[in-house]
Amino acid sequence: MAAKATPEQIWKALVKLAVSGETATYSEFGAQFGIYHRQVGAALEPIKKFCKKHKLPPLTVLVVRADSRRAGRGSDVSSGRFDAELERVFHFPWRANSTPQFGKPEKTSLSKTKSSKRAFNRKDFGAWVLKYDPAVFDLDALTENGETNITLWSIADNYRADEMQIGDKVVLWQSGKSGGVIGLGEIQGPPIPQSKVKSSSKGWKNKSSFSKVKLWADVEIDLLEEPILRERVAEECVLADAEIFRIPYASSPSLLTRKEFRAIERLITRPVSADDKPSVMRKTGAGYGSAEKNRLVEVAAVSIVIKELKKAQWRVVDVQSKNLGWDLTAKKGTQTRKIEVKGVSGLLPSVILTRNEHRAFATEKDWELAIVTMALSKHPHLRYFTRTEVRGHVEPSQYVVKMES
After folding, report:
1. Percent of the chain at pLDDT above 70?
2. CA 74/CA 76 separation, integer angstroms
3. What is the sign of the dihedral through the CA atoms of 81, 82, 84 and 88?
4. Which of 76, 213, 358, 381 is most buried (CB neighbours < 10 A)?
5. What is the per-residue pLDDT across 340-378, written as a single tens digit (0 to 9) for each?
């Protein structure tokens, strides 16, 4: 039955998978040509030999076992080398070469450049995904002193690293069945070569893995107090085809589209319902942390707002100590602004108003809300919200119960 597909047809199907960054099971791949899954290995043999002869990435590694999504009969790649070889296949410029004519004299020279310049669709880009593998790295060792902020993360040296820009959103994803979204942040600068980074091997379980790191992402990632579990993420229809599920073994950085990242944001910020499992808490979207850290975030946020206002020629008075329901009174000519400042160490502009602040919001026509996200990072973001904008997003989060004695 394998004779139904020529090596050239098999090659083209594999290249199509490589260019789209996908893998296929033996059954899925064989179904394209009417090949029984147990005979797919034989159909892949000419391609495997061709790649080995010409020292190309093993294209046949894209056909994987259904149970493990790892290499199987059509590949001689060991389990330990699978991830690295998969990356080589994904980033090789297959389309720069014509399809080999198997069984005929070879006339075409093959391009063996480092990586392909596949189109990167920034218009549809949502966030980078940096992966954390507990089998390789011990995150607890990095956060043992109560730190919840990460500033460097190892990434593959490929075309995607070149596309990283300051301000790009970042999702930290823990791999494995018990994993999920464990952190959110932003890119703070271009990737940093290992030679320019004073990083230690602390937390790395395998020192040889650390020694292979060539590039680091310059990030500010705020760890969530509780993860958004993988099973919960998988329930979102829009995330079903996300790379984190479609190509789980690809190295960092993977990516999320705009729609996929918005779905992740909604999971983090949605209110906790009675049906939620206790281990899935949503309050960390606002970057809630220890009292000490919250104070640092608050001070930084107020400083940022004051600096921005003075730069715009506003006369600013700090009224925090007066407990008015706002922090700063700003005046310019006949204009007055009563600004409540909120700082967030994370990405999402989700904050809590006290009873007094809510009273001012409801009664003071000049009241407005300033939220500084990533307040402790090198690139904080300041946004102002009018009373009208705030009104549509206020939700009660606590209730006081006064019982008769």
Report:
1. 84
2. 7
3. positive
4. 213
5. 999 987 766 778 898 899 999 999 999 999 999 878 877
Side-chain-facing half-sphere of 101: CA atoms under 13 Å: 6
Give the mean model confidence (pLDDT) for residues 330-344: 94
* pTM attached to this predicted model: 0.57
**Cβ within 8 Å of residue 116, ≥6 positions away:** 19, 91, 92, 93, 94, 95, 96, 159
* C-alpha–C-alpha distance, residues 50 and 46, integer Å: 6
DSSP, res 39: G
Q: 354 burial class (0-12, 13-18, 19+ CB within 10 angstroms)? A: exposed
User: Partners of 222 in the beta sheet?
Assistant: 149, 184
The vertex-152 CA angle with 150 and 153, nearest 5°, equals 100
User: Phi and psi of 179, rounded to 5°?
Assistant: -85, -160
Residues whose CB is less than 8 angstroms from the CB of residue 199 and which lie 6 or more positions away in sequence, other chains included = 152, 216
Q: Which residue has the higher pLDDT, 94 or 170?
A: 170
- Minimal CA–CA distance to 139: which of 191, 174, 170? 174
In the numeric block, which tokens belong to residue 228?
């958004």
CA distance 242 to 21: 11
Q: Confirm if 144 and 216 have CB atoms less than 8 A apart.
A: no
State both tokens at 38: 């147990």
Task: Give CA–CA dist 375/335, Å, rounded.
Answer: 27
* Cα distance between residue 99 and residue 111, in whole Å: 12
The single-letter DSSP state of residue 204 is B
Please, what is the average pLDDT of the chain? 81
Token look-up 């090949």 returns 35
CA dihedral sign, ordered 60, 66, 70, 75: negative
Residue 252 above 50 pLDDT?
yes
The SS3 assignment for 337 reads strand
Q: How far apart are CA 190 and CA 379, in angstroms?
A: 13
